[in-house]
Amino acid sequence: MRRWASISVLLIALTLVIILWKIYYLDYDPFDVIPEKGYKLTLEVITKNIRNRSVEIATYVPQDSTKQQVYREESISDAFRFKVMKVNGNKQAQWRGENISGVNKIKYISRIKSARIRFLFSNETVAREDYPESLQNYLKNTDLIQINSLLIKNKLKELTRDKYSLYEKIRAIHNFVVKDIRYVNFSGGLDAESTLQLLEASCNGKSRLYVAMVRLLGVPARVVGGVILNRSPKKTTHQWVEVYINGHWVPFCPTNNYFAELPLRYILLYYGDEVLFKHSSQVGFTYRFSFEKVNIPKAGLSLKYRDMPVNIFAVLSNFEKFNISLNILIYLLMLPLGALVSVILRNIIGFQTFGIFLPILVASALRGTGILLGLAVFTGIIVLVYVINFLVTKLELLYHPKMSILLSGVILSILVLFLTGINFKNYDLINVVFFPVAIIAITVNRVMAIVEEEGSMKLLVVTLNTLVVIVICFYFMNSTFLQLSMLSFPELIILLVGLNILIGRWSGIRFTEFIRFYPVFQKEGRDE
Amino acid sequence: MNREFFKWMVSGDSRGILGINRRNIDYIYTGSSRKFFRLADRKLETKKILEKAGLPFPETLGIFTEFREIVDFETISGEWKNFVIKPDRGKMGSGIMVLGERSDSGFWDTDGNEIVHSKIRKRLGDIILGVYSNGLNDIAFIEERIYPHHFFSDLYPRGLSDIRIITYRKEPVMAMMRIPTGESGGRANLHQGGVGVAVEISSGLTYAASIKRGKIEKHPDTGAGLVGKKIPFFKDMLRMCGMLPDDIRLNYLGFDFAVDRERGPLILEINARPGLEIQNIGNAGLHGLLRERAGGAQ
User: Fold this and answer.
1) B130 touches chain A (CB under 8 A)
2) Closest by CA position to B199, among listed B224, B171, B235
């Protein structure tokens, strides 16, 4: 076997041996490193105010519970001061600003790890007789949850006739509120009694009636509120019910028929029959929630694998220690993979790009800016370099000062975009500053080399080729499967080296060459 | 075409066509040393080798390596006229400036425009700063102007036509002639619209011509017939290709010749990574020819 082939096979085999050794000998569970599914929940609030005055806005934001864990949160706003307060067991975000006028935007981003929860609740579950003082509030009559109402009392009696266990009784209430109270979507709430009278309500009327009936059984219950992450963006929030059973607050949703369980997509914002938003009067106020799925690392992994000889988790835990996100580690690990994809696209398919690294660097930068904005900025830089070069050509400047002018022009344009984003409250546009300067500099250099040596047509071709390669690399580098593979088995980098050796010795025709030399290919075929 | 592509993918049979991958692996990296790529990439270094081997090339009149030398261009240029400014490492004819008779404040170019001294100094400065060689510092040199043999000026009077001969271990494998057109702006580059004419190695006769892969019979500007012509001094050129000293460890080369009215064939450049477009011009696969004619890699 040739030397290169042996080395390549050796490297690939070595990788497989390390992986198998980790799994079978070190008892390494590849699934451990798999980050948990989570959500990046974004709340955007837009305020409109005509006169200069102080404005206060408060809302409940996600906090840790059995179902959800907040991993990271941030608030973006230029006009308001921000703080988080604990209010009645809820986490309240408060924004306050003086002399606020015009249109202002607040963004609150929370990364939440959410889980599906399900409680064992059956005929065998025993109800307690008495509850501690702290839970007495959840047994009381309120204006909206009228447990003194005769109508509700009689209905409950009818529903729970010959029902003996707590499970059967709550099942009966649940079935009644789910099936017999018709769901209508209206804004504003209904109290428990009116819900029963009308036999129709939105989630909040249903929840209040549910809570009233459960309290009448002598079991603490409360309305809770949150948001269902089923479509993005959305303006509607949701309310459901929690019942205190055997020392746990067990969730029930009479609107979507969840009994002692809740799916992943329910995110809890507050406990109690609260109003989500509070804001100063005479302020125009709109909001929306949007979300995307993200990966959030599992906690506590670093301890489990601390003493292992080949320990990627040590790297991971050190990243965590310095509060560097998992994303940076992923970013580093995905670069060699992106390079391989770029190499395949170049040497086997035949794409012509601005170098081999620029596409993968831009592809990584897209994570910060978003794919469309990132590609637009990249294309914009190329166009700008071309135009500025065209304009200054007549000045017959020396090479280096001209390059410096080009870079200055690009940076100036990026600042203008950034300020435009700030002024028009376009938070997406602000992301333009996350486009790394190093990439901009390399791009300017590469573009100029092609313009000077090979002309505009070539620049156009190479630009289009590069854009395609960037997008393909982006999808590979952002593939959850590949990210997890690299994260669990970083020794795969050795395998990538092996594959690169194979490609480096592959002397076949590139696909674009097949097209380029197609007439010759045909003719040589006829001659044979 | 899809089926054919698939068949090619599966069989790996390139039907004798040479792609970039194979060119680099089997012909450029194999049996060559990096040191010599540099030789071939630098025209002045190439000239030193040519001189040692006793091969003809356009004479160098002057060399500019530093800025302060440019300032004195007017003095240095003395009695020069009819010369060419070239970058040592320029690719594909970029950065070249052809100057004719002297004018009051500079020179006349080949189209009869006046090129003033400051413009020439600017070009020399650009070359030194690496504008034509990817930002690397470079050397500008002055070369005698070639007056093409009437065979070439009859085909097209402007610019400089050249003959490219691909050799492997000193054996000529494939040849073509490149002629400028109005569209190519006096340059003989194929991708800029120059004419490519296939030349038969055994006879020196032209047998096909094309512009940007479209078949033609006559030069688009002059109407001169391009097929069935015998290239002058072709045998001499083939002989010269085999005359490089043995210690130059480059197996696979592209020789560029021009034929001067008085001096005959001159070597303009030796390319260590000659392009592959010659296959489309000659309608034949280089890999197959290399195997057949020069014992190329199997």
Assistant:
1) yes
2) B235
